[in-house]
């Protein structure tokens, strides 16, 4: 392949958007119905991101529900009364739900959802739920 050849087998970039008076060079790549790999920078993807975040949270909550039952059954096997084991399992569910909600919100839009007014209460509830998980799960 020769570097000094004027003809290119690839594509040419369009001129910058601010130079509207310059003529646009014809594209050398055939136009095909291929979707772009990434969304344009000016596209608003917040509703799609929130929808994906809600779907992820729903799947996690279902998994945490089964973890809650497994933890309660483990405590019952360790001779903890069933009502205390069930309460400890629900506190574990609240802890895991708060932590995963904070992580998903931070992944969706960290500039908006990492505010102290959102993360602060989630963290406080998570810490209280973690303490109550272990206090309630005692014999």
Low-confidence stretches: none
**Structural category:** mainly alpha
- Largest sheet features: none
Q: Would you count the extended β strands for me?
A: 0
Order of helices and strands: HHHH
Radius of gyration over C-alpha positions, nearest whole angstrom = 27 Å
Explain this structure.
The protein has 139 residues and is mainly alpha-helical. Helix content is 60%, strand content 0%. The protein contains four helices and no strands. It has helices spanning 46-77, 82-108, 110-113, 116-136. Helix 1 packs antiparallel against helix 2 (82-108) and helix 2 packs antiparallel against helix 4. The longest helix has 32 residues, at 46-77. The N and C termini lie far apart (78 Å). The mean pLDDT is 83.
Q: Which terms would index this structure?
A:
mainly alpha; 139 residues; single chain; 0% strand
SSE map:
Elements: H1 46-77, H2 82-108, H3 110-113, H4 116-136
Summarize this, please?
This protein has 139 residues and is an all-alpha fold. It has helices spanning 46-77, 82-108, 110-113, 116-136. Helix 1 (46-77) packs antiparallel against helix 2 (82-108).
